[in-house]
Amino acid sequence: MQEPLFGSVDEVVERLAGAGYLASTAVATTVFLADRLGKPLLVEGPAGVGKTELARALATATGSELVRLQCYEGIDESRALYEWNHAKQLLRITAARDEAWTDTRDHVFSEEFLLPRPLLTAIRNPEPTVLLVDETDKADVEVEGLLLEVLGDFQVTVPELGTITASRRPFVVLTSNATRELSEALKRRCLFLHLDFPPAELERDIVTLRVPGLDGRLADALVRVVGALREMDLRKAPSIAESVDWARTLLALGAEALDEEIVQTTLGVILKYRSDQRKASAELRLERVLDSAVS
Ligand SMILES: Nc1ncnc2c1ncn2[C@@H]1O[C@H](COP(=O)(O)OP(=O)(O)O)[C@@H](O)[C@H]1O
Ligand SMILES: [Mg+2]
């Protein structure tokens, strides 16, 4: 067993905060358990709620190297695991005209001609590593088989080189926007964390942390309006990323409070569809949202 990274749930909260990430107790507890149990952490939730950032902050908080595998449609083993440097192999073969073929072959399938991709890089890294498999749901189902294999025993077999086993297990974070269900088998291997839009108080703290200099009352108002927008039936509800962008915008404009005019002129920062903007313009009752009693 490897030394755990964190001594307690509180320590997770503290160290993540030190890395600029404000985690709820639920988030911190799941991180703590993933570390203790040595299990990959699967973080699912809508875009912009801090899934990728959690992995980044974990790396910073633990002094680990972040190795990121960004998934996309059509990603395959050669992009995720490793591939051979064919161009370099060809050059080597051409240069070795007088050499026996078996010697050349052994040579071109050696370390020198291997191009490690994120999964292999993470497994081989002797230093502490956070492996981020980002937007796993964008990859084809076959890639999940590969992930299962690699995350199962943390080893990779390169037929020409042999089996490479992790000397130190990376902390693995998989993220998914849930555009499709991941396989049961993959889910079973992971600890599951659902991230959603945070409660208003936490979001205000995040915004204030990310945008120093923002007035506290303005931050409050902003978070309330964003909350009200999320309750509308929009094509794309504003996420934490948009709240932060909006806060930066308001600060740059020197706005002191939210009024109809400033909301209308900056709506494009938080709503990215024309139809959502129209709906918000028509339905948002700014005064009512801002007047509602502070709880
Ligand atoms: N808990 C948090 N603490 C601090 N910043 C956060 C938090 N959650 C989200 N953010 C902010 O929101 C932005 C978007 O988060 P990101 O991780 O890119 O979203 P996702 O990967 O879920 O789409 C980040 O750049 C960060 O500024
Ligand atoms: Mg992300």
UniProtKB/TrEMBL annotation:
InterPro entries: AAA+_ATPase, ATPase_dyneun-rel_AAA, CbbQ/NirQ/NorQ/GpvN, P-loop_NTPase
SUPFAM superfamilies: P-loop containing nucleoside triphosphate hydrolases
Domain AAA+ ATPase, chain residue ranges per copy: 37-201
Family annotation (PANTHER family): MAGNESIUM-CHELATASE SUBUNIT CHLD, MOXR FAMILY PROTEIN
Protein name: AAA family ATPase
